[in-house]
Amino acid sequence: MTAKAKPHTLGLWPRSLRSRLFVILFAGLAVAYGLSFSILFIERYMSAKAVMLGTLETDVATSIAILDRLPANERPDWLTRLSRGSYRFVLGPGESGVPDLSGRAAEIAGRIEEAAGHKFPLRVELIPGDGRRLQAHLTLSDGSPLTIDVTPRGVMPIAEWLPYVLAIQMALLLLCTWFAVRLAIRPLAQLASAANALDPNRKSAPMSEEGPSEVAHAARAFNAMRERIAHYLEERVQILAAISHDLQTPITRMRLRAEMADESVERGKLIRDLGEIERLVQDGIAYARSAHGNVEKMSRIDIASFIESITYDYQDTGKAVSVISKAEGTVLTKPHALRRILSNFIDNALKFAGEAEISVERRDGNAIAITVMDRGPGIPDDQLDAAMQPFYRLEQSRNRETGGTGLGLAIAQQLATAIGGSIRLYNREGGGLAAEVIVP
Question: Which CATH class is domain 203-291?
Fold first, then answer.
C-alpha cells in the first residue's frame, strides 16, 4: 500500500526536469520578490506612520495653544484654518462615545494626549458607527469646551498604477525564468536526441561543441564516445573478416584431401561438413563486407523493372515467387545492396513457406516500400527484434538447412543502413511473415 501511495502524494510535482526547474526557479524568485516588496512596503508604512503621528502631535499642540489664546468670539473663524484632512476642531462638548480604544485608535489618542499636555485634561472616546472615528474632549483656559474630531485615513495610499507595475514585473519574472530554464535544458535535450540517433554505422555530423564550458565538455565526451564505439565495431568486423578469410585456405585444402580419399560413408559426411563450414565462412565475409556497404556507388534504377528482374531469376529456377502489386518510378539507391536484401528475404520465405509474394508501394515522403510476404510459421512477436541481431537463430539446431548461421537478416540490416533505408519484420494477419525494406 505504501509503494502505491507514494506516486499519488507526488502527483502535483511535475515529471519533467524542465517543469521542475521552472517551478523551483519561479517559486523561489516570486517568494524572494514578494518578501522584498513586503519589507519595503512595511518599512515605508512605518516611516510614513511615524511622520504622520509626529506631525499630528505638533499640529494639534499648536492649534490648541492658538485657540486657547484667541478671544472666544474669534475662535470660530480659525476652526477651518486649523483643521486638517484627518481631523477638525469643533467648539462645544461634541458627541458622546465609548472609552474603549485599541490598536491604531489608542495610538492616535496617545499622541493627542501628549499634544494637549497636562495643561488641558483630555478625554478621548470612540464614536459608535464605523469604528474609526474618534473625538477628544478638553476644556480651554476660559472654561470653553473644545472637541477634536478625528477621522483616521490611510497612512500611505496605494497608487493606482502600482498593480499594473506588479503585473508587468511578474510577467518579466515569468519570461526570464522560462528563458533561463530553456537555456539550461536545451543542451540536455540535444544530448538526448544525439544519443537516440546514435548509429556508428551512419556517417552523421558530430554533436556541436559550442556553448558554455560544461556543455562543450559533455559534447566532446559524447563525440569521443561515439568515435570509440564506431572504432570498436569496425575492429570487430575486421577481425571477423580476417578470420573468415584466413579460414578459406585450410578449408579448401581439407576439402581437396577429402575428395582425394577413398569412397566411404565418412568421406561423404566430411565433405558435407566442410561445405557447411565454407558457407558459414562466406556468410561471415558477407556480413563484414555489408558493414562497409558504402563502397558501392549510388545509381538510379527503375523500381518496377528491378523487381521484375529479381522475380524472373527465381521463376526461371522453378521457385514460386510472384509480384502482387507494383509501383512505377525510379529511385536512387545501391542496386547490388538492395538486391542482396531482397534475395535474403525471398530465400527465407521460400525456405520456410515454399513461396514468396512481393509488394511494392510508394509511401509518404516519396519513399518506396518493398515487402516480401509468405504464409510460413512466422516469428514470435517477442523475438522480432532479436531476429535482426547477428548470429541469432530462431531455430537453435546446428543444422544449416534449419538453423542457418543467423547472419542473413543482420546482413540485410547492414545493407539497408548503407543505402539510407530501414527494414522491418512483422507477422501477417492470418499467419506468415512480412519483411519490409524502405528505400528513400
Answer: mainly alpha
